[in-house]
Amino acid sequence: MLWIIPGLVVSYLIGSVPTAYIFGRFFKNIDIRKFGSGNVGATNALRVLGKRVGFVVLFLDVLKGFLCVLIIGNILIPRVTLASRETLLIILGLSCVCGHIWTVFLRFKGGKGVAASLGVLLGLSLKIAILKPILILSILTWLAVFVISRIVSVASILTALLMPVYTFLFAESKVLLLFTFLLSVFVIIRHRSNIIRVCQGKEKRVTFVKK
Questions:
Q1: How many CB atoms lie within 10 A of CB 104?
Q2: Confidence class for position 83, pLDDT limits 50, 70, 90
Q3: How far apart are CA 61 and CA 18, in angstroms?
């Protein structure tokens, strides 16, 4: 337990690094929270900072979750029992996602958790084989909904809703089911304002060609 607590803290702090905010300050000397949707995430970075910077932000946010699971997980795994290793990796991943959503560096107001969750799932899928079909189905769901709707939030919300269902169908582990359920809840809670705008028909669609 003494080794796990520092690992959770480090995972939270890595997740807390507000990539979009830092890049907004560095490249345009702006507070990204005052532009676009006001969110400190990759989608708003794409809109406000441009595609190149936005995709770098997306990559780094995904990388945060991936590294927390693999690097910190690999350091701590030898120190826990075999039966506890899956749970340890999942808790580290959740800690990172919590840091991304509730970052200590911006008064606990961060991103919406989608990119960090993807990174965590990618890292976990390398350690927990049964997560691979769940991850693939989740990615395909996101892509299909996005292609049809051109709305990032709708794709993220529907994927979050279906991910626990995929886990229930493929995995027998109650820990994994609880993990994907919590990720789903986190993502949906952070998309409350988007859900309202979708219902009002005001949510912005992504366009790739300027008119």
A1: 13
A2: low
A3: 9
Using DSSP's 3-state secondary structure scheme, residue 38 falls into: coil
Longest dimension (CA), the chain: 58
The number of residues in the chain equals 211
The residue type found at 172 is E
Residue 42: CB partners within 8 Å, gap ≥ 6? 19, 20, 54, 55, 57, 58, 61, 111, 114, 115
pLDDT tens, position by position, 20-56: 999 999 999 999 999 988 999 999 999 899 999 999 9
184: CB partners within 8 A, 6+ apart: 160, 161, 163, 164
Residue 52: CB atoms within 10 Å: 10
d(CA 149, CA 195): 14
Between the CA atoms of 59, 168, 11 and 160, what dihedral angle is there, to the nearest 10 degrees?
A: 50
Q: Nearest to residue 180, comparing CAs of 140, 146, 130, 145?
A: 130
Six token digits for residue 90:
């999942």
Q: Are 145 and 158 in contact (CB under 8 A)?
A: yes
* Distance separating alpha carbons of residues 43 and 190, to the nearest angstrom: 14
